[in-house]
Design goal:
TIM Barrel; two-stranded antiparallel sheet; globular; NADP_OxRdtase_dom; AKR_Detox_Biosynth
Length: 321
């Protein structure tokens, strides 16, 4: 399947407008978990993403404390090399024997993380290596120096960051050009619109947004009952957007997304993703999938164009604050 592609910032990569996100497939039992995950379904979801034409996968060392990267490697092991997608991963979040997470950006730590990710991914080189969070903030320069050296050493092809502010991007740009940024962006989290996105466009920084469906809230599948029955280790249980008073307002927004989607034979989630892609600064969106059918339910967003009238209707329905 031929999906629309776009040049990814300063890199030579042309990536599909949607990519496969592998946060949730890491499974339960750690601080950022989405609950238990069936590995076979996770592998099938990855293979379905490749089958429908998605040409990049985003993962991170910390997802499932290494398990997500291992699943990506296992799934892609059966894919012919010519058909394999790019694999992007991230560093700076480490864990101990109790799976407690700490932020580390010291150079030696980052380089050890890279070696560990290469091993788990069964790869000789990582297509895009990203700093996951700018923490500890006093060490972001040292962490970025480590990524620049890893690129020079041929361990990674391209380097980028996630969750950085404009001020933080300015602090590191003299060390090595920032090729990509991964920020959160969706209808309920628009903080990047005024500063980050224009900055990235001005500096030719590729942007892949995460959580375009607000972690499943805007898919049309989320109900009040489903939220109430989330497992204890699903981080969303403690999110304001999944609790009152915000939950009721957010579910009303989903009703509008359903109406707009019906006019395009598209799901509410596809409308939510397409809404993020309307911004010219956004190269592509990361969309998580835990089962093959979830991949099928979002792929239409890649070439879904919303009219000005539809965008106005959505804008009016987005809750304030």
């Amino acid at each position: 399947m031929a999906l629309p592609r776009a040049r990814f910032g300063k890199t030579e990569m042309e990536i599909t407008k949607v990519g496969f996100g592998s946060w949730a497939i890491g499974g339960g039992g750690w601080g950022g978990a989405w609950g238990a995950q069936d590995d076979r379904e996770a592998l099938d979801a990855i293979l379905r993403a490749v089958e429908v034409g998605i040409n990049w996968i985003d993962t991170a060392a910390v997802y499932g404390t290494g398990h997500s990267e291992e699943l990506v490697a296992e799934a892609l092991g059966s894919v012919p090399e010519a058909d394999r997608p790019y694999v992007f991963t991230k560093c700076s979040l480490k864990w101990d024997e109790n799976r407690d997470i700490v932020n580390v950006l010291k150079k030696d730590s980052v380089k050890r993380e890279c070696e560990d990710s290469l091993r788990r991914l069964r790869a000789e080189v990582i297509d895009l290596y990203q700093i996951h969070w700018p923490r500890p903030e006093e060490d972001i320069e040292e962490g970025w120096e480590a990524l620049a050296e890893l690129k020079e050493e041929g361990k990674v092809r391209h380097i980028g960051v996630s969750n950085f502010s404009v001020e933080q991007l300015e602090r590191i740009r003299h060390i090595a050009p920032v090729e990509t940024l991964q920020p959160p962006y969706n209808m309920l989290n628009r903080g990047v619109e005024d500063g980050i996105l224009p900055y990235c466009q001005k500096n030719d920084i590729g942007v892949i947004v995460y959580s375009p469906m607000r972690s499943g809230l805007l898919t049309g599948k989320m109900t009040r009952e489903r939220v109430e029955n989330m497992p204890d280790d699903d981080w969303r249980r403690n999110s304001d957007d999944f609790n009152e008073p915000k939950l009721s307002r957010n579910l009303k927004l989903v009703e509008i997304l359903e109406e707009v989607g019906a006019e395009h034979d598209a799901s509410p989630g596809e409308v939510a993703i397409a809404w993020t892609l309307r911004r010219p600064e956004v190269t592509a969106a990361i969309v998580g999938g835990r089962r093959p059918d979830q991949v099928d339910g979002i792929i239409g967003a890649a070439d879904l164009a919303l009219s000005d009238e539809e965008l106005r209707r959505i804008e009016e329905a987005i809750p304030a604050g």
